[in-house]
Amino acid sequence: MAWYEIPNTNAVSIYSALLFGVLTVVFVFRLWLKATCGKFESKVRLDGKTVLITGANSGIGKETARDLAKRGARVIMACRTMETANKARDQIIKESGNENIFIKKLDLSSQKSVREFADDILKSESKIDVLIHNAGYANTFDKKKSVDGIEMTMATNHYGPFLLTHLLIDLLKKSAPCRIVIVASECYRFARLNLKNLNPIDTMPGYLYYVSKFANIMFGLELARRLKGSNITVNMLHPGMIDSGIWRNVPFPLSIPMAFIKGFFKTTEEGAQTSLFLACSEDVKNVSGKYYLDCKEWDLQSYILEEDKHKILWEESAKIVKLTEKDPKI
To answer: What is the Cα–Cα distance from 128 to 76, expressed in whole angstroms?
Structure first.
């Protein structure tokens, strides 16, 4: 018998062996992902601290709010869907024993909603120690405009946080030292931001999610530069690929392979770790303008570091969100 012949085999045994091999590789890869997943293990308390987090009714936002509540923080959950938010709040209070969890209505795609929310915060809150821009919107093919005529992905993921930060900046300065945490994504690497078309209504929404994350990072870098010396830190992060509700808009039949791929994604609890690290850790209390992944500083590509482009995005964004002379300036 030649060396390459397999004795006493048939198609079933061969396919069984191949399947076992594939499953073994998948299992080992999953173990590797778990082993390299960043974990914020500090027991630091946040008693007396107020944290405002957007999109806190589900996904990594909810897990972040849950952990912050367990640390004793006063948590403001800024959410669009109030029914889901109320359920999340009740669950967090039950698990944490912390009654200082509050819900406020916020639709980041609507400039009117952002302004109403900011007015409410300015009237009701004496300080904000941490602002976490967590909320995110993604769609694959369904092109939508916001009530302001802005492409929905960009309106929610970039322009809403941009406007909200401006409207709250005086309170943040008053609260200093404080932190701003921006949930971005490594998906920025798959996109480029067209500074001549910052309301790309005719572009596929799936691609615009990447573009919006590109904008998040550019905004964060420029914000950190402008706030230098203010005792407000600004840092961005990639939470990892998360098995969360953001994938609910993936249509059939793309949802079929996605169901398998999501087996390699982080859980929402794992995905919240870097947000918690940047919000709580003493290691980054004086760090600003950096990008993190798995609780570690991560390098950004050179093409997203060009300051002249940051300034253009800033100036054009101010026009799109209709900042007025009476609005706070950064």
So the answer is: 10
Which pLDDT does position 322 carry in this prediction?
97
Question: pLDDT, tens digit, for every residue of 1-15?
Answer: 454 455 555 665 665
| Position 40, amino acid | F
Across the chain, where does the E strand assignment appear? 50-54, 74-79, 101-105, 130-133, 178-183, 232-238, 290-293, 296-297
User: Do residues 178 and 131 lie in contact, with contact meaning Cβ atoms separated by under 8 Å?
Assistant: yes
pLDDT of residue 51: 98
Q: List the catalytic residue out of 159, 188, 209, 291.
A: 209
Rg (CA), the chain: 22
Which residues does 278 contact at the CB level (< 8 Å), separation at least 6? 179, 181, 235, 237, 284, 292
Q: Per-residue confidence at 141, pLDDT binned at 50, 70, 90?
A: confident
- The answer to whether the CB of 51 falls within 8 A of the CB of 76 is yes
Q: What DSSP line would sit under 166-230, residue for residue?
A: HHHHHHHHHH-SEEEEEE--GGGGG----TT-SS-TTS-HHHHHHHHHHHHHHHHHHHHHHTTTT
pLDDT tens by residue, 184-240: 999 999 999 999 999 999 888 889 999 999 999 999 999 999 999 999 999 999 997
Kindly tell me the sign of the dihedral angle through the C-alpha atoms of 21, 23, 27, 29: positive
For this structure, is 209 an active site residue? Answer: yes
Q: CA 138, CA 288: separation in Å to the nearest integer?
A: 27
The residue type found at 200 is: P
What is the band of 152 on the pLDDT scale with cuts at 50, 70, 90?
very high
Distance CA 58, CA 92 (A): 11
Identify which of 124, 130, 71, 134 has the alpha carbon closest to the alpha carbon of residue 102. Answer: 124
